[in-house]
Amino acid sequence: MRESGMEKSKGRAKEAMGKMTGDRRMEAEGKADRAKGSAREAMEKVHEAAEKARDAMKRRAS
After folding, report:
1. What's the pTM value of the predicted model, to 2 decimals?
2. 41 CB neighbour count, 10 Å cutoff
3. φ, ψ for residue 19, nearest 5 deg
4. Whole-angstrom Cα distance, residue 27 to residue 14?
5. Distance between terminal CA atoms of the chain?
6. I need a surface site. Which of 23, 33, 36, 55 has the fewest CB within 10 A?
């Protein structure tokens, strides 16, 4: 599993635990972790697209 997926899962768990226990701080931390995971996922997608573009340029130059 990618880091982004783990971050989002951790966030979901924290958020759920916060809701169950009434701990608003933990719930907020969970939401922040999920947002962080989503941002990381977007960054990973951009990185993959850049690698694909680089590889395509290398193939055309050959």
Report:
1. 0.76
2. 16
3. -65, -40
4. 6
5. 34
6. 55
- Is residue 32 within 8 A of residue 48, CB to CB? The reply is no
Residue 17 tokens, joined? 């635990």
What average pLDDT score do residues 24-49 get?
95
Measuring CA to CA, how many Å separate 61 from each of 1, 28, 48, 49?
34, 50, 20, 18
Q: Can you give the pLDDT at residue 4?
A: 85
Name the CA dihedral angle for 52, 58, 61, 62, rounded to a multiple of 10 degrees: -120
pLDDT number for residue 1: 59
Q: What's the token pair of residue 40?
A: 């990381």
Question: Residues, the chain, total?
Answer: 62
